[in-house]
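FAQ: What does the model actually see?

It sees only this:
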Amino acid sequence: MSSEETISVMYGDSYTAKDGTVTDVLNDYGGGLFHPDNVIVVSSNATTISVTPDDPMSVVTNKQVSVKQNTTSVLFHEKAEAGLGPRVPYRGSVIDYENKVRSIIGLPSRPYDMGHSHTIKFLYD
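And it is asked to produce this:
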């Protein structure tokens, strides 16, 4: 709340960026996205997603875990993404923050996953 940066929140299944690029938020990002335009986009249709657990063997075995979500859990997940800043090596703090909200709204805790690990560094392009 003390940040001087403004982040807009939009609800929709897609987002058209300032450069004209269209992103399918629901199908390509599971229902939520923090875009570099300083916009959080939340799909009203966000439901259960499948993630790969935070374990390298899960990649080898193609193990997936279902995560129930709703617009509130997605919004606060993306708020955490926005608050992390650029290029943090461990994305698990997003899940830590989201799980605080999930406990308040009555959703089960979300496990860490390969995109939001608490032990494995996130590799950037």
